[in-house]
Design brief:
PucR_C-HTH_dom, five-stranded mixed β-sheet, 3 domains, alpha+beta, 427 residues, PucR family transcriptional regulator, Homeodomain-like_sf, Alpha-Beta Plaits, Globin-like, Arc Repressor Mutant, subunit A
Length: 427
């Protein structure tokens, strides 16, 4: 069996992306080519636990908190993980052992655009490095299952691991270039001026309010409510996002809200007024791919800032809990957001406080939740649920038998646990 090839690069450098264009590795042996092709076919259909591990690696760590806490950026990162994995595997089925060109398709372009619009820089691409470590470890597992021949395995690992690391290097270089281009393009638009002005206001920079109002076309005095409108779909429909921003403004009776393009699939809003969450929740059903988080209301510039922070809190809670809810207002989720900052601890709290009630029929849990929300007034709770009072009492009796301790002894704890289940969408 021949030794591992030298894998020397041949060819000129590509000025656009900084990688060698029109070049190929010195090819591996025919046997190793076939082994690479077999392994790449397996990588095209990775088990779900591989993908979960890849996502956790790329979204964990303090240096990536701005990505992991933003549901749009987190969803884009997960799509990029899958895109890169499938791109590399497909290339190695077609040309096993050849150098894989960088992945500069639609998904990386969208990631670059969103990073720039969030004010993040190339350091966010460190997530690609974290994913590389997981990919190599999983690939080594595949290689070990393909051959027991030491020489074959040595050549296989040498070629393929170099291929993975070079592919990641080249892709990072290409996306870095894309980020630079996006930054240049964004700097020329009116949205960039709005985004920059809003950033200065949110971070307390000394910009004169009159100047900021002129640049934004929005009055900074008075009472404000912030909202975030977004979609986690791979190809978010701009028209759907625009329709929802109109719905939010209409529900607050504000004809001239401030809207900022925070990313391709994210809009930041401020309104003079407060959206009607009941009517807005009903209207959102017509736009199932779009979600809305609404902040608290506050006065003047301090309220402008505080409301946006509260809207972010509601948005991040929906993402953290993988909630199916389309609309969350800070007023209704503030306690749940605090209680679920540690999801694992929150799950333990729910199990301890609710006992078997956590697994009861949804109408039993909902009866107890609404009863507590109605300050334990059975008549008011029955009216809210549109059921007869006796029906409510029967359901409450069932709930009481399932609780570890009487409801009267832990009304706040049971109510909080039931609200957590509601926002988690537990059926």
């Amino acid at each position: 069996m021949q030794s591992a090839p030298d894998l020397a690069l041949r060819g000129a450098q590509c000025p656009a992306y900084g990688y060698a264009a029109e070049v190929s590795w010195e090819p591996p042996s025919p046997r190793v080519c076939e082994l690479i092709r077999q392994g790449a076919r397996r990588a095209l259909d990775p088990p779900q636990d591989w993908l979960r591990e890849l996502d956790e690696a790329t979204l964990s760590g303090p240096q990536r908190v701005h990505i992991s806490e933003d549901p749009v950026l987190a969803a884009a990162t997960r799509r990029a993980n899958r895109s890169n994995l499938l791109f590399w595997a497909s290339a190695n089925i077609d040309r096993p052992g050849a150098r894989v060109p960088p992945n500069v398709g639609d998904v990386p372009v969208a990631v670059a655009r969103d990073l720039v619009r969030r004010g993040l820089n190339e350091s966010a691409l460190d997530a690609y490095r974290a994913g590389q470590g997981v990919a190599i470890r999983r690939w080594i597992g595949i290689c070990l299952s393909l051959t027991a021949d030491v020489d074959e395995l040595r050549e296989l690992l040498d070629v393929s691991c170099r291929s993975i690391t070079t592919f990641v290097d080249d892709t990072i270089a290409a996306v870095t270039e894309l980020i630079a281009r996006q930054r240049d393009e964004l700097a020329q638009g009116t949205h960039a001026e709005r985004r920059e002005t809003v950033g200065l206001l949110l971070y307390g920079a000394p910009i004169p309010p009159a100047r900021a109002e002129q640049r934004l076309g929005y009055r900074l005095t008075g009472r404000h409510t912030a909202a975030i409108v977004w979609s986690e779909e791979a190809h978010a429909d701009p028209a759907a996002l625009a329709r929802v921003t109109d719905l939010v403004a209409a529900s607050a009776a504000d004809p001239q809200p401030l809207t900022v393009l925070a990313a391709d699939a994210t809009r930041w809003m401020w309104l003079h007024g407060h959206p009607d969450r009941v009517s807005l929740r009903d209207e959102l059903a017509a736009e199932p791919s779009v979600r809305v988080a609404v902040g608290s209301s506050g006065e003047d510039l301090a309220g402008f800032r505080r409301s946006h922070i509260d809207a972010l809190t509601a948005q991040r809670m929906l993402a953290r809990l993988a909630s199916p809810q389309q609309l969350a207002t800070h007023d209704e989720v503030e306690l749940v957001a605090l209680a679920t900052s540690d999801v694992e601890a929150a799950d333990g709290f729910v199990r301890r406080v609710l006992g078997e009630l956590a697994h009861a029929e949804p109408e039993i849990r909902e009866a107890a939740r609404v009863f507590i929300a109605a300050q334990c007034n059975a008549s008011h709770a029955a009216d809210r649920l549109y059921i007869h009072r006796n029906t409510l009492l029967r359901r409450l009796a069932q709930a009481g038998r399932l609780l570890p301790r009487p409801l009267a002894e832990d009304v706040v704890g049971v109510g909080t646990a039931l609200e957590i289940l509601r926002w988690r969408g537990a059926g």
